[in-house]
Amino acid sequence: MLNLINTSFDNCLKCTVCTTRCPVAEANPDYPGPKQAGPDGERLRIKNPQLYDEALKHCTNCKRCEVACPSGVHVGTVIQLAKARHGGFKKGPREFMLSHTDLMGSLSSPAAPIVNAMTKLKPVKKLLDKTLGIDQRRTFPKYTGETFRSWFNKQSGTQASFQRQISFFHGCFTNFNDPTVGKDLVAVLNAMNIGVSLLKKEKCCGVPLIANGFFNKARKNAELNMSQFAHSLTKTECVIATEPSCAMTLRDEYPEVLEVDNSAVKDRIFFAAAFIAREFARGNLPDMKPVPLRVAYHSPCHLIKAGGVIYTMELLNSIPGLEVIMLDQKCCGLSGTYGFKKENYRTSQSIGQGIFDQIEALDVDYVVTDCQSCKMQVEMNTDRTVLHPLTLLAQSLT
Amino acid sequence: MKYNSIIIGGGLAGLTSAIRCAEAGLKTALISAGDSALTFASGSIDVLGFRQNNALVDYPFEAISQLPDGHPYRKLGADQVRQSLNFFTGQMAQAGIEMSCHGQQNHSRLTALGAMRPAWLSQPGAKPLSLAEPAAGLRRVAIINIAGCRDFQPALLAAGLKKHTDFAGVELTIGDIRADTISLTARNVYELRSLEIARLLKRDLFSRPEGLTTLASAINKAAGNADLVVLPSVLAVENGNQLIHQLEAHTGLRLCELATLPPSLPGMRMASALRQRYRQLGGLLLEGDEVVSGNFDNDRLLSITTRLNPSMPLTADHFVLATGSFFSRGLDSNPSSLTDKTFNLDVVTAGQRQHWSNQHFLNGSQHPFCYFGIETNDHFNPYQEGQVIGNLYCAGAVLGGFNPVAEASAGGVAISTGWLAAKQITAQYSDVRGNHVESH
């Protein structure tokens, strides 16, 4: 049987670099760090599943260990798969609620004003804290009354008039919570003479499902999304996503974590900034007016992992008059659903403190980041408003 | 997307090169496939420590002229090597670490096994000793461990020190600081690595107003009135040198911080100082991606493609290859040949596989494979099938023609060749733009 097991973790040299870069190990001594939780532990777990360590639950799946690893070991993936294999995920109602973002969105969005008002109320927060274990100190994301898809449908005719077409994977947050980034993307691409079309159907990419152990559901979503991509790519150039975690999951995690083959379309899945930067490089540059702002850029973990920071910086630097200060490449600590859980609140806040302090010390107009989860965390913990790079790009359009 | 310079490799050579390019105002990107060997390094910089006959080198810059032809230092010359190291100390100082040296002379740094290694620059916490008389002025040395630190063995250090005739008359004592006396509350202190101790101390001890004095009195108690107190480097990740200094003021003792088994805190400190400096200069750091191929046109490298973004090549006027040696995966070997993994450039190698190494790993004679690496011209441009690539420079351990371990020259070669690559690149910009961008 042994030869059927993936032993690529054996490339680990035991250098401990991964642990030096792990934000959780730094903030929480109960977590033994990615080396021990990943490759070291995997040897033991193969020998005897009883040796599974409960401390693995502390991993946020930020993937910084993989970015740091000089030997190319997929440390974070080893940990996620071990948790799945050994029942290391708690899958209670809280985990279901936090991870089924598209289901929660379609339930909440039609009643957005009521839901938003409710989730702001202290007694409601206290109740969620007591009954579900969702920390009452968290600010909850708001829902939008008009989903991105319903906004988009009103102008699908305009979009169809463009000769060039791309497919947009909007993700749950843009659709149900805040459609701003989606609208900005449409504006930017239209200014570059490219029309946007949506997939006929789209399911959550799977990031929160993987992080909470709902692998089967994530795999089902992945299969649906892939069949939609195949269909849509017959008529459009590529699929792009504005959310770094979505882009990383669709392109890299489907085969690596969920074992869903995406090889036929993989090279045509892009992070939005990467696609736009390539267009810019080819000379397809919209007219831009100066945006005289001083902003601090925070790079999200999953964007670093997917190699996308270079494109976002390229876009920001192309906006005339914009001064960009790059923050230290540290984790903000929220990690999607992780920081919402009561038992993780302290760790989450402690991880992010470095970034919050750095932002407060800088005299900037806005913070910029690509990730909606990072945005929530930074806005909750600093005085600054956080913008998506595409919002600034849309502002610079003449 | 177009850059002035793209540096491949995030270690000492790559960072030095990248910092110099960024400081000169060039649009610079640095690609690093995982953390570099700096994380395991001592935190000292050796320039040249041993001659070919294994004799110690007193004055490293003077000894450069006696090195064999083809050695990277011979292509640079002593003056440029010295300038590059001055540049490096300046950059480290700007990032908050004042490296110390004994004028033009080498010093000895102590290792955790009690060996002496020659070096030219050390972090202040390392307490450099005299090269000729390392034990001068020492009557009693106290070796203190934090109980539970599994990365440091005081008895091994003591045994190693006793082998030096210089230390024959020095009394060596061994002491422990118990975890509970310095408020460490870990699940099992005997599992702790140096990094974990540093993090726990930050949380449990130094967060308290009396934290520093608590540690100082524990050191006093364990060390008595020794002339030198040796501690494993477990106290702090950032600002370790400042902490040692404060502890010296509190204890009235001379404290020496020794790098432990990997990860090494002094090495991590150096790496993060350099990365921070590069970022402040506006450089772009791309971590966790690696170059998979280069697009060459005759004698020029036009662009590179990376594993994470294979369909979007990155273009630059100049490139620096600083991917390291075998350990850092810059060089690769198979039973019959040796290759540069990134671009398949021409490498210096010697004969058949059986002649690559000596039969005995540690018999004191040098292994030929240590000299293997990329072959370059006097400007550190490599060859591809005999053709010089004019806008590509090689730097650091990926170069052939020197033996970093036997000569104790790894740090100096990395810094000086990385510096020279950037010097040549920035000089070309002053030509093109007609204005001088050089600052050093």
Biggest pleated-sheet summary of chain A? 4 strands, parallel
Q: Provide the CATH topology of the largest domain in chain A.
A: Rossmann fold
Q: Element order, helices and strands of chain A?
A: HHHHHHHHHHHEHHEHHEHEHEHHEHEHEH
Low-confidence stretches of chain B: none
Globally, the shape of chain A reads: globular
Order of helices and strands of chain B: EHEHHHEEEHEHHEHEHEEEEEEEEEEEHH
Helix content of chain A: 40-55%
**Multimeric state of these chains?**
heterodimer
Number of strands of chain B: 19
Query: What is the count of helical runs of chain A?
Result: 22
Main beta-sheet strand count, sense and barrel state of chain B: 7 strands, mixed
Number of helical stretches of at least 4 residues of chain B:
11
Written account of the structure:
- The complex is a heterodimer of chains A (398) and B (440).
- By secondary structure, chain A is an alpha/beta fold.
- Chain A has 4 domains: 4-85, Fumarate Reductase Iron-sulfur Protein, Chain B, domain 2 (Orthogonal Bundle), CATH 1.10.1060.10; 93-132, no CATH class; 148-280, Rossmann fold; 287-396, Rossmann fold.
- Chain A has 22 helices and 8 strands.
- Chain B has 440 residues and is of the alpha/beta class.
- Chain B has helices at residues 12-23, 60-63, 72-76, 78-94, 154-162, 194-205, 211-223, 240-251, 265-280, 404-407, 410-433, and strands at 2-8, 28-32, 107-110, 116-119, 140-146, 171-177, 228-232, 255-258, 284-287, 291-297, 300-306, 314-321, 331-333, 338-340, 347-348, 373-374, 383-384, 387-388, 392-394.
- In chain B, the strands form 6 sheets. In chain B, strands 1, 2, 9, 10, 11, 12 and 19 form a 7-stranded mixed beta sheet that branches. Chain B has a 4-stranded parallel beta sheet with strand order 6-5-7-8. Chain B has a two-stranded antiparallel ribbon with strand order 3-4.
- Chain B is globular and about 70 Å long.
- The mean pLDDT of chain B is 92.
- The chains are: A alpha/beta (398), B alpha/beta (440).
- Chains A and B meet through helix 1, helix 4, helix 17, helix 18 and helix 19 of A and helix 6, helix 9 and strand 9 of B.
